[in-house]
Amino acid sequence: MDMKDFSLEGKVAWVTGASYGIGFAIASAFAAAGAKIIFNDIKQDLVDKGLASYKEAGIEAKGYVCDVTNEDVVNATVEDIVREFGKIDILVNNAGIIKRIPMCEMKASEFRQVIDVDLNAPFIVSKAVIPHMIKAGHGKIINICSMMSELGRETVSAYAAAKGGLKMLTRNIASEYGEYNIQCNGIGPGYIATPQTAPLRERQADGSRHPFDQFIVSKTPAGRWGNAEDLQGPAVFLASDASNFVNGHILYVDGGILAYIGKQPQ
Ligand code: NAP
Ligand code: GCO
User: Fold this and answer.
1) Which of 3, 59, 93, 211 is the most core-located residue (most Cβ within 10 A)?
2) pLDDT at 147 over 90
3) What is the average pLDDT value for the chain, to the nearest integer?
4) How confident is the model at residue 198, as a pLDDT?
């Protein structure tokens, strides 16, 4: 076993939607492991904000304006990246949205919007990148799944459907392209403190913790929310040669929540 297998030195990594949040943390870890970082956002001002954040972290990143749901823009972005960097060794399908609406109150257009970003886009981006990985003779695709790839809860029907589908898309890419030395795996974060979950952690009017905040902490054996940094080591592992025989696996990084039935009410 050579510890250099965990290095990303000389690799080119594209983390979608990584201006901040989980994507930014994963991209930062890839940079620390030696990779060149590419990210995208839907508007130039957001890309610029992301670039400023990477610069502040001492990371030289390349940002593209790219809405991952727009196939023409994705295809053009992939061509630009390959023209400038020569390859894409690692793709992380991180960009995602959630809409918390009771299913019977959710418009079909709202359901479709979540599916479009969280499931259709990973298909579109992976489909554009895989031919280049086949040509290179290797590739790593990491799809950011969710506990909702396994569990449901009130108000997240579209998100759970998308993330459940993303789990199976992960397994199918692994099955269809494993023979080209492409490994496709998923990371299933637990409840992570990012802008996406901020509404679930907001202090109440009386200053008390949000009931959902208390619920998640009680349901998590680790007894805390995850931080985006908790995902960095698992992401580097799945992006590195150390995981070349890991394929089609969803690595849950959740503090044990999926393993735990929950504490008996006192
Ligand atoms: P976040 O803070 O909301 O960040 C999401 C990122 O995706 C933002 O940079 C956003 O850019 C970008 N994005 C959204 N739609 C896009 C599009 N159409 N094209 C390009 N970029 C787009 O979310 P997060 O918590 O970091 O989550 C990142 C991923 O982890 C998501 O897939 C999420 O489902 C998943 N996840 C999160 C948690 C959690 O507890 N936080 C747990 C499990 C899984 P804009 O700023 O322009 O919208
Ligand atoms: C929610 C949360 C979750 C987390 C994450 C859990 O409303 O239940 O947003 O969906 O984001 O996906 O793994």
Assistant:
1) 93
2) yes
3) 97
4) 93
